Structures
1.
Amino acid sequence: MKSYIQEKIDVYKQQNENKARLLIKCPDRPGIVASVSQFLFEHGANIIDSSQYSQDPEGGEFFIRIEFECPDLKQKADEIEQDFEAIANEFSMDWKLMYVYNIKKMAIFVSKEPHALLELLWEWQSGDLMADIAMVVSNHETSREMVESLGIAFHYIPANKDIRKEVEQKQIELLKAHDIDLIVLARYMQILTPHFVETFKNKIINIHHSFLPAFVGANPYERAYRRGVKLIGATSHYVTNDLDEGPIIEQDISRVNHRDNAEDMRKIGQSIERSVLARAVKWHLQDRIIVHENKTIVF
Amino acid sequence: MKSYIQEKIDVYKQQNENKARLLIKCPDRPGIVASVSQFLFEHGANIIDSSQYSQDPEGGEFFIRIEFECPDLKQKADEIEQDFEAIANEFSMDWKLMYVYNIKKMAIFVSKEPHALLELLWEWQSGDLMADIAMVVSNHETSREMVESLGIAFHYIPANKDIRKEVEQKQIELLKAHDIDLIVLARYMQILTPHFVETFKNKIINIHHSFLPAFVGANPYERAYRRGVKLIGATSHYVTNDLDEGPIIEQDISRVNHRDNAEDMRKIGQSIERSVLARAVKWHLQDRIIVHENKTIVF
Amino acid sequence: MKSYIQEKIDVYKQQNENKARLLIKCPDRPGIVASVSQFLFEHGANIIDSSQYSQDPEGGEFFIRIEFECPDLKQKADEIEQDFEAIANEFSMDWKLMYVYNIKKMAIFVSKEPHALLELLWEWQSGDLMADIAMVVSNHETSREMVESLGIAFHYIPANKDIRKEVEQKQIELLKAHDIDLIVLARYMQILTPHFVETFKNKIINIHHSFLPAFVGANPYERAYRRGVKLIGATSHYVTNDLDEGPIIEQDISRVNHRDNAEDMRKIGQSIERSVLARAVKWHLQDRIIVHENKTIVF
Amino acid sequence: MKSYIQEKIDVYKQQNENKARLLIKCPDRPGIVASVSQFLFEHGANIIDSSQYSQDPEGGEFFIRIEFECPDLKQKADEIEQDFEAIANEFSMDWKLMYVYNIKKMAIFVSKEPHALLELLWEWQSGDLMADIAMVVSNHETSREMVESLGIAFHYIPANKDIRKEVEQKQIELLKAHDIDLIVLARYMQILTPHFVETFKNKIINIHHSFLPAFVGANPYERAYRRGVKLIGATSHYVTNDLDEGPIIEQDISRVNHRDNAEDMRKIGQSIERSVLARAVKWHLQDRIIVHENKTIVF
């Protein structure tokens, strides 16, 4: 299976070897778009797509995502990055240049419930989620067979709050050894320490099974049932040290009614969790998200 | 205008003079449906629609709503109600028999923002919200002209927390004088005292501008904006003494993104508030809602 | 894997050994509900759930689905069915009594695109789609490995319009040999002959990749793209001899915009196809659907 | 009422006196964004918002909408337009520069059903639909009172297919006399001749009560009911000479079920028609729509 996916990845890399994405955040002022687009033009790049957002044209932040194509990009990359420094300094830019052929390395953390993991693997198999899934990490053996059958490494690391530090140490070593760019918590039911979160800042995406900020914390379906809500939801967000308080990437909901008990809600909710997490992960992989303070700009 | 609506109401009453709705709540056990349907059959009634819900067939509550048609219903009504007592006692029923031609009397409370009021009036004019709108009560003069142009009484009762008791006294007198069955808080921005709420138990419907239980209390759009949510919502619920904690009738949401500030959310939200409140009010008028503990069964 | 599912199925059968569902279609007239519920009560059955629909109380059709529980149902089944004949005759009923423990036997037909098949198998593995998936039939080998890894028989039957008759002969033999109750066309790209359709009347569910009646026939995404629609959809329906004209069970849509080309629409659409087909199949397995003329009543 | 709206309009004009929107369509090639943004920068303009779409970077069309702010715009407008000709010629641009303070003049055509008209007027009153509604034209007197009560001119022009030419002559004179920029058919049930359509090319927005291309033509709800669909919808589009075939601007749907007859669908549908038409009209007024061949790009 892995070889079949690998082939898709290789085709994708080749097709996109001249494409890059430029993400910029800086104080708003006239001339930014003119300078950047002039720069790209002079370096032989053609803008394919561009989205921008001015928080407040008079004194707010300015955000832009530009996707461009440039012949011989690999050879020119260093030069482009060096030359861009001048503009970046002039406008006090916080910027990143991401090469599309640099497929991101991803680790998926999961506990017992496999639905969110399965959705990601399904999107990955069908070529719609372009990442190098380097490993699945779990505190349960449940998903091993399925994960390994796809040729993906499965690391069983038992965890509980008493051994949290040692567990995370092991996880961090593993993640660093594989240069992981993105950690997806696909219903991983362990709390992460500030140290772990800090180590992978804005690189951990979680799926929470409620429409936050409703039902922060444990057992949201049980609490939704007791409250008698008519909608249940799911929220994907970057993980910060405040539980379920990180920047929200995507949310969605589904209708429920008086006939649905907490268990029915859990089942209905799984379908929302799957799609909300998959959308958030894809947007991250496509460099569509800029985190600003405690919010996301999703282009 | 009122005469045009009155005509619609008269036609409706005549068309439905033989229709009634039976709402029952009782401990679940075998034989309830058999007894009730046999009873209706023996009294010459034909069941038009019926919905039921068993919380838990082994020992929970049972709920049923039956809509039936019965020739000469007006003459037979007393007899039916009397005869039904036997069944009601046998099964320990909490029941109500509502005659469709008994159009409910409704009062709408509103403060400054008129959108929810306007939606109700629009549905009422088009004949889709079958009620006798006896009055609009407001602590602002803003909507007077529009309300009176439709031939509806407008009562301006200034209100603030210092004079709450006197204000409510005046309101209660007015509502009782007109035998009001339903009070709709269409963005009425005053808190009601326990006394007022108790006086009209399960007869006050409010619209809250968030998907509860997120953003209970004041300024939900401002707080939604600060939290960076990707969905905003509205919730209609019966009013209890716990602020925004009453039984939820209906909820809905709309997507927002990073470009929408609190003011944009307020505008987008108005459209959800309008439809969520209108649906809840219509369901109440059609006797579709049974309140059980802090939840609603909506048939 | 199959043994794991088999275990779930066994638990389900045992938990539901006393449950049955009664589906009735007959001319509307007073006394139907009274007679049926009285009958069930006298036979010791407790109604758990009941939904009904009167097309037009004065002279239309009446439809009802009753789910009931009855101690020792297996021993009493014959007696109940025999005794019910009297009522059925009196009211000219078209009726079916389905025992919940009689898990339905299902065959899935698929061509190359596996997404709809995968969704069904995923729901089946998680215990949410309660069926005995007896076989997958395909005119391509693509899905063999995955299907067989779940312990399900995979039958590769090459097909094209020149050998349609022979192919269907083989398929019918196979389906009959396994007493198949439901055939799901999970993106099976071959047209079925009237003979095949007639053999399994109201037992074949198809997923069509458009919101019918828009884009009947081939290449709906290509045509949706050319027309510039802002919504794409999917429709599950029972198969009849008129292409894409059978009774619709379920539909849903997703938003697209000018950036989405036909290939993007195909990908977005797959997600709708998956959920729309899964819902339709589950409703069929739960005996929630009554076909009347060219429409479905879904309880 | 009109004076109250007029005040809002005046405030809006003043707040936006330095804002403009540039819409461009041209063959794609490198350097477009650089040239345009450099041009704006040199003329003292600050880009507030910008969206673009490349049909196909290698040889397709390129579309961009830029919203910018420029001090003393009114004095500079002529110079900007003149200077821009050079760039426009270089890149073979089809372009428009729209000044935000130039509020568009709008006429609404309606027949008997007032719901779509009412929604537009409601959005207009609340300041969310920024237009100068110069007149309502109708072939029925139904809405006169309501329209005139808002201070808007109401023109009753009886129409039928025998007098189509004369009727349209009268309408065209009226529209031209008031320099109408946009004609909204808010459920106007008369067919327009090619002459009328040609006179106001891409300036007539219609609301059709189905999700096109399903149910082109008359009585879509009746036909949706007969087909047994589970979704009904509405479509707003620019009017062309092919009935219901013009470029689609926006669509939406709502769920229906077997209980809903054609009349229920009509009522449910009205709510979709209202919001779909209002969104389309607002996008047009905000210069968000570029028509290309038979499609719309909506920025």
Note: The longest strand of chain B covers residues 19-27.
2.
Amino acid sequence: MPLNLADTVGYAAAVLTTVAFFPQVLKSWRTRDLSGVSLTMYGLFTAGVALWLSYGVLLGTWPIIIANGVTLALASVVLILKMKHR
Amino acid sequence: MPLNLADTVGYAAAVLTTVAFFPQVLKSWRTRDLSGVSLTMYGLFTAGVALWLSYGVLLGTWPIIIANGVTLALASVVLILKMKHR
């Protein structure tokens, strides 16, 4: 199954916007410094990613399900840490 | 043009994950407190959103272009503030 340019760019985009949350989780977990992180942002973002996951499930599209499942887990950790360490 | 359930969930998801960055920009702009924000996260995330924007341009899909154009602008502000106020 050859990938065209748009597919390749889309997969690279999905990988970057998903793995981006790993360093934030590591930093927040290690330092417990969440002072500059917006609680409202993580509340809205986590809800939005949960909807993206639902969208993937409704369409049965695995790349959307996997990318948003991972992002949902990571963003939820930041949200919970922010709620504990305001 | 009636929207089906998946379309509706997808649009709601796009709106939430885009507007989520407004409160982060406002907080970072007002307080200049970026201490808990990961520079690596915003570097990777901004690059990823730029690729999502390119993906939308390649496909000619306006909802993807608009949502990621707005998110790119907002994430770039946080990235620049983080680089200035580490």
Note: The CA atoms of residues 18 and 67 of chain A lie 6 Å apart.
